[in-house]
Each structure stands twice: as structure tokens, then as C-alpha cells.
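My current task is to audit a protein record that another person submitted. I need someone to confirm that the C-alpha cell line plausibly describes how this chain folds. Take the sequence as given and treat only the C-alpha cells as open to question. This is what I was given:
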Amino acid sequence: MGNPKAFLTIHRQEAGYRPINDRIHDFGEVEQTLNTHQRREQASRCMDCGVPFCHWACPLGNKAPEWNDALYKGDWQLAFQLLSTTNPFPEFTGRICPALCEKACVLNRFNHEPTTNREDECAIIEAAFREGYIQPRTDIKRNGKKVAVVGAGPAGLSAAHYLNQMGYSVTVLEKNEAAGGLLRYGIPNFKLNKSVIDRRIELMEQEGIEFRFNEELRIKNEELPADGTAVADSSLFTLHSSLKDYDAVVIATGTPTARDLKAPGRELKGVHFALELLSQQNRVLAGMEFSSDERITAKDKDVLVIGGGDTGSDCIGTAHRQGCKSVTQIEIMPRPVEGPEDPQNPWPNWPRTLKTTSSHEEGCTRRWNINTLEFLGENGKLTGVKIQPIDWKPNPEGGRPLMVEAGEPEVIKAELVLLAMGFLKPEHPEYPDNVFICGDAANGASLVVRAMASGRDAAKKVNEYLV
């Protein structure tokens, strides 16, 4: 390490966000950047800790100490080369990853000032694009075998990238009009500008990957024989005619089914899944037009977000930019502990502590231990939501705690409700041996970085199967 004691004299410095009064009026990325000198200073704080728990915590196995050291020494090209050995898309994780590595950083244990790995990562990859370190590979030797990847989200893109580098002819089939999955249709532009995705897809196409959009291949049990087994013909996947000519298929279709809330009044106009709002807003920013009846907007409305996770937070930021009157977010689970430490999940594990996002900072009433009883409306339109404070007590039979009433029901005024309660893990039939599942389609909803790691692992399994 170039300066293993820098952490003793240099404090953690984050780039921070654009001013609230500025950023809520547009969908530009809210996060700012440090200058080159400051970024190298931050990289120097990566200490010679002996056991790099950051590497252990990262699903991709990123070698943060190595590329931070190269960055500190000013060798941006080497830093990029080291980073890209484990991470196919640092421009994505550098913007939206919760940085498991930083919570596992020894400095986080030491003084709660971990190295700024995520921001350093983003700075490295942006410098690589800017300086021309990234060039499409034109020397890939093809092995004569073809692989189809169903789904162009982070897992599918990762699998396609690695398979292509191995020499397979890769075709990515995507049901939407563009690639990215939740990167494009779930995460708001103020966290990830979609030009960042377009830049990467263009590079992947230049390297020989074929993308076919607006092709939805429904994978359902009823498409299989009555005995529940898949049909294989000379090891070719025959579940769908479009896939019969491929030597292997990677299913990376994500978790398309959102968790619903079957409360009375669910059918009222104004109650929507979170992704209905988020995906439509991203499409509007991309130039797509919707009729007034189709358009979902928070403009001049009191908004209620049900669900306390990142998707709910994205709804809050989007509602502000659409011109909402107010935003309230409720969560059925208890309020997380105040950070930075979580006694129930100590370092180097991820602390389940209270998270305040840039969207929360923009204005939001947050409440926990709240159960939704009923959606209220007039003339078919939502006007409010009846909720009730609750508490949780241990279940004498073990398992999930029991919900008990803890207060009188009340009504929250709302003309727009957004359901952000997570997604259901997909169920799959039994597939033939040349079909591989990865990402959220295999594991249920999780982080982008985990999806990318799963896509990489699926590519390795495909290669092991076909070699």
C-alpha cells in the first residue's frame, strides 16, 4: 500500500448531493463528484488491514485494496484494469450499490469512517470511459456455440458479457423496448441516468452481442408436458420455438410479480404498484407519451407509499419531482435501530439500521408499525387510507411474531397510493440440463450487485456444461 497510515490523518469525505431546492425540479443525478485530488486522497485511506473484509462482503469479490492503491498513486488505467477483473459494470454498482464492502471495511469497525469504495469505483470507471481505456474487444475467438439469454437486466447482462468473452455467440432476448431491466425501468434517473446504460449496451453490441427487444417469452408450467418434465431434443431447449437453435439458455427474467395488498378498496383508481409509477416516469423521460387516463402522476396530490424499502424511497423522490402536495411512507415492521451499529447483526455483517436516503431528505413523513386496513374512496377514486398502529409480540409456537393492535384506526388522506412491498420469488418448472437460471429469477428480489454475480456464475456453469 502506498500510504497505509493515511486513514489516521484523512477523514472520510463523501461527494454528497446537489442542493434539495435544486434537484427536486429535475430528474438529473442527485449525487455529486469529488475532484481528482480529493478522490485520490479518499483512495489513500484504504489501509493495509491484512484481512480485507471488503473483499469478503462483496458478492463480486471486488479487490478494493488493490484498485484503491492504484487510484491513490494516480494510475487510473491500472485501477480500471484491476476493477474490471471482477466487476463487469462498475458504472452501475458505483452509482446504486449499497456498498456492502464499506460496512465490512475495517475502518467502519475502527471509527465508522470506511473507505469510499463505491464513489472511488464510479470515479475509476468514468475516467476509463473518458480517457479511452475502455475499447470493444475485437479479438474474441468464437467457439461455434450459441447461447440465448432471456432478460436484459443486470443478471442477464452480466451473463451475456462473460459468455461473450468466453467465445460464445450470445443473443439477449428482452420483453421491453430497451435493455436494463430494473436498472432502466425501476431505478429513477436521478439515481442512474439511462445514458449510462445505453453507453454500456453499445459497447456490448460492438463486441458481438445481439440484442432483440420486444420479445417476451413466457415461461409457464402449462407449456410443459403433463408429467411436469421439460422436453430436450439433442440437448436443445425446446420450451419455446425461438430458443430451439441454441446450445444453452440462461433465464434472467427477474421477479416480475409485485407483492399485492388485498385490502378492501384495492380496485379504486389511484392505487398502483410502485413500478407502475417508476417505469412509466422513466419511459416519459425517454420520450414515450401516455394519455391522461394512462398517466400516473403525483402532481398536486397527497401521496402514501406503503413499504419502507428502496423502492418506496424511489417513489418518494419521484413524487417530489412530479409536484406532489405531500408524501407519507408507512411500514408494517418496526423502526430500525439508529446507526451506525446493529447489535443484532454486528460488523462485518450488514447492519440493519435506519436508512435515510436522498429522497427522504427531500421531505417525507415516515411511520413504522402501521397496518393498512382499507382503501377509501368516492365515485371510484381514492381519497384516503384507513390504517392502524400495531405492535409485534413473540409467537409462543415459534416462527413469525404475532401482530397485535396498538392504537385506534385512523385515516391518512391520499389521492395516490404506491405499493412498494417487494416482489414474489418466481417459481420455475423443471428445465432440461442446458437451461440455467440466475439473478432474481433464481434467488428472489435482491441487490443489483448480487444479480451481476449470479449472472457471472451462470456463465461459468454454461461454459462447464458446453465445454
About this structure: The CA atoms of residues 346 and 352 lie 9 Å apart. The radius of gyration is 24 Å. Confidence is low (pLDDT under 50) at residues 220-238. The first strand starts at residue 146 and ends at 150.
